[in-house]
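User: I'm putting together a teaching handout on how sequence relates to shape, and I'd like one worked example. Could you take Endonuclease YncB, thermonuclease family from Pedococcus cremeus, show the sequence you're using, and then write out its predicted structure as tokens right after it?

Assistant: Happy to. First the sequence, then the structure tokens directly below it.
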Amino acid sequence: MSSLLSARRRLAATALAAALAGGLAAGCTPEADGPGTQATAAARPIAQAATKTAAAHATARPTTEKPAPAKTTPAAAPKAPSPSKKPVASGLVAVVGVTDGDTIKVRLAGKTERVRVIGIDTPELRSHDCYAQQAASRMQSLVQSKSVQLLADPTQDDRDRYGRLLRHVRLADGRSVAELLIAGGFGREYTYDVAYNGQAAHLRAQAAAKAAHRGIWSSGCLAAVSPAPAPAPAAPPAPAAAPKSCLIKGNIASDGEKIYHVPGGAFYDVTKISESKGERWFCTESEAQAAGWRPSKR
């Protein structure tokens, strides 16, 4: 920068000297109106411009303007890494074991709880019922080592007499485990004393499984569970009405509890009597109670 300014100053000084010299030379010409005078007049603006230029360059001072500092934006905070596994949704519990087709074990509040699934009864493993192993295996494939949702039903007790929690069980995607098992023929719809939420859906699933002869409704299973007719119950000591008037249904729950239903009761029409399971008809409530059955709550 300094060398460039020095060159400009020398150039301006040279131009000034040349202009002055030309003006002096022209002023010596005696012919006022001759070519010398005209040359002098023409040289004056050039000399004046050169003088101004030289003065400007002589007084100029190099300036060094500092560039404005560049605006800096704070670096964006790094995003937190995505978790390798999706978090378990609220309300889900881990399944740690499968007892059979309708009972599972879950980890709840720091301890293991047994859960009896509401609305289904599956073949018993301990008595080697037809399709019992398949029902247990199907339950394992649905819930073992997975997370499920447990739903209490206000129409049912919180626990059964064995201390098991009574719950509807749903998969993480919302599907009902009981309904899936019933639809596949791995169990039958089961109402314990009082109708539960979702009973109609279970009955529809059972009707579809029956129509398709799936699982327990297949000819092989039906043949295996068709024993010889049970002997007729002993006649009561007192004279009894005709058999057609013995309309009280003595039902046996999957947990072994005996409950009888009278005509007009809330679950009388949906209760089916299977004499092969030890269920029976009674003519009077006193007869049913004497045989060890209790009345339905509805």
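A couple of points you could highlight for students: The first strand starts at residue 92 and ends at 98. Confidence is low (pLDDT under 50) at residues 24-43, 77-90, 235-242.
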